[in-house]
Amino acid sequence: MFLEFIQLKEEIIRKCENRPVLLALNGGNWGDGLIRYATVDFLNRIGVRFEVMRLTEFSHVDNTENKDIDLTKYSLVLASGGGYWRLGSKDKHLRIAALAKRVKHVIVLPCSYDMKIPDYFTPNISFYARDKFQSQDNVPQAKFCHDMAFAAHDIMAVPGVGAGLFFRKDAEKVKGSPIFENSIDISGQGTAWMDIHGFLERISEYSTILSNRTHVCIAGALMGKNVHMFSNSYFKNEAVFKSTLSIHFPKVEFHRELKVDIVDEIIQKSEDR
To answer: What is this structure's pTM?
Structure first.
């Protein structure tokens, strides 16, 4: 286990005060399901009692809907990690702020922060960033910890054959990126609530992974594959690469530009192995 996960464990155990922890899960695509899977695995392994709620079950305003959710048994709420700290996700931020008014402590698990933290957040919220660069520049009070997906301990090395292309098709791809007919945007084929094993099995088929999806690349790295990570539309991928993948996973390479000739060369090398 990375040192940062041990430090996170110690903070969780201290702040939960021997009471159950509430894990408020953010949604997302199938790749975000790896965050969910690994976070649940992590909490089970550190031995804390916890219950799970979807963040969207909790209203962002203090009304009777919130009062129907009994929070009195919790000292600590964990808000799941991910990439939802952007200006377009204000609704989720307001829900976390509302939760913080009802419990003693909130910890926001490792996220990318493409914004400053709004003034309406209370001091009882602790923030973790999954990179040491732009996220900590935007939120200096955030402590660094690796993306929670790296906490998954039971993803085994699988050899695989050939090159698998898993490029994103949504708005987070770099504008003007080439389209590859043999690419599958597997993260977009499911949700964070689905069983993660189908996601992992598809990635495991290949020896080389090419993707601009963060958690496709992390899954490939955990399986010991040759991974070629490409930029997305903002700093997230490069920052996670520089903070974790480049240090601990030597078979992962980063490419700032997604070009046909680069992809063709990588595919050819994978076939020559």
So the answer is: 0.95
